[in-house]
Amino acid sequence: MKKTFLNVLCVGAVLLGTSLFAQKKIKLGVDAGYTYTSLNQDLSNLVDSKYNSRYGFGVNVSVELPVWKSLFVSTGLSYLQENYEFERTGTRDGWYTKYNNDFVSLPLLVGGYIINNPYVSDGVWVKVAGGMYTDYWLTMKREGQYPVFSELQPDGTFNYTKVSDKYDFKENENNLRRLGFGLQGQVQLGYSLDKIDVFASYNYQYGLSDMTKDNISDNQKMTRNSYMISAGIAYKFN
C-alpha cells in the first residue's frame, strides 16, 4: 500500500511539474536557508539516552501554477540536510553520535494567497499551502565519541575514542529505509514588483514513514520532523 501510494505521488508530481511549463502563467522560485530536524523514537527501554535536534542547510526550487482565483498548486525539488544527535546522559555522559544526512525531497502542495495576489497586483502578499512530500535518503555521515570498554580506569570510568564514517547504503547493515514520505505545510510572506517576487518562507515536514525496515510496531517507529526557514526570489511567467 505504501509503495503504491508513493509511486502515485511521484508520478503525479512529475506529471504536474511537466504540465506547469506548458502553462502561460506560472511562477518559478528558488530559496535557501536553515533546517532544524528532530528525530522521534521511544527510548524508554534505553537508559540515559536522548535525541537532540541539530541545524542544517537547505535549498528549494519550486514551480507554482495558479488554478482558480487565489488558489494554486505547486511542486519542486529540495535538497535538505536533516541532522540530529544521539546522546548518552548521566553516568554515560560523553558518549554520543552525530548524524549528518542529505535528502532530496519532492513536495506536492495545494494552497492559496490569503493577502493580495501577486499574479493580479504588486505589493505585500501572504500565502499558505499544504500537502504531501516524498524524499530519498542520499547520504549519511556519522561522527561520535565512544567509550573504550577495554580501558577501564581506577575510578570506574572509561577512556573515549572518536570515530567518523560514511554509511554504506549498499551494505545497509542497519536496514534503513531510503524512500520516505509525510505531510508538508508552508507559509510565505513576500513582496511582488511586476514579474519579480522576493519572499521569506517557513516549511514544516512531518514524517509518516518509518526510517527503518525492521520495526514491527508503532512503539518502535523512527520518524523525523523537519523545519526550514529561508529567503528567496521568484519570477512570474505571465
UniProtKB/TrEMBL annotation:
InterPro entries (alphabetical): Autotransporte_beta_dom_sf (IPR036709), Beta-barrel_OMP_2 (IPR025665), OMP_A26_sf (IPR053724)
A Pfam family matched in the record: OMP_b-brl_2
Keywords: Signal
Record bears the keyword Oxidoreductase: no
Keyword Transferase in annotation: no
Endpoints of the signal sequence: 1-24
Domain Outer membrane protein beta-barrel: start-end pairs: 21-212
Protein name per Swiss-Prot or TrEMBL: Outer membrane protein beta-barrel domain-containing protein
Organism in which the protein naturally occurs: Chishuiella changwenlii
